[in-house]
Amino acid sequence: QVQLVESGGGLVQAGDSLRLSCVASGRTFSSYAMGWFRQAPGKEREFVAVIRQGGSSTYYADSVKGRFAISRDNAKNTVYLQMNSLKPEDTAVYYCAANPSGWDLTLPRAYDYWGQGTQVTVSA
User: Fold this and answer.
1) Inter-CA distances, 98 with 36, 50, 110, Å
2) Residue 86: which H helix or E strand, with range?
3) Could you give the CA distance from residue 101 to residue 72 in angstroms, rounded to a whole number?
4) 60-119 pLDDT, tens per residue?
């Protein structure tokens, strides 16, 4: 069992930056791929970014490439999402999630553990 706790969301203006954090419980954090997803009202949950266990392999949705950066600190059991040049269309609840298997890393169903979500609102 893994517990994930997110923080860092808020209300910002277009063009601003935010850094989201997700702290995981448990001893085996370093063995999981960690992903960020987001969900806006009336929309399906969508993939944002993922980082593999080693921390050097990352992948991003086209909508955030060049603006967002995912990173992790295994010593702190923490994964981050640095969000720059935020746009109103980035407004959503952002979730971190853990994938123990390492497969299907862009699919929500492949992640076994989820945080509670943190709201990001970007005004025009």
Assistant:
1) 9, 10, 9
2) none
3) 18
4) 999 999 999 999 998 999 999 999 999 999 999 999 999 999 899 999 999 999 999 999
Cα–Cα distance, 69 to 28 (Å, whole number): 23
Residue 114, SS3?
Answer: strand
Quick one: which of 88, 92, 89 has its CA closest to 20? 92
Closest CA to 52 of 78, 28, 71, 37: 71
Find, among 112, 12, 99, 8, the residue nearest to 49 by Cα.
Answer: 99
**CA–CA separation, 32 and 100 (whole Å):** 5
pLDDT tens for residues 40-77?
Answer: 999 999 999 999 987 779 999 999 999 999 999 989 99
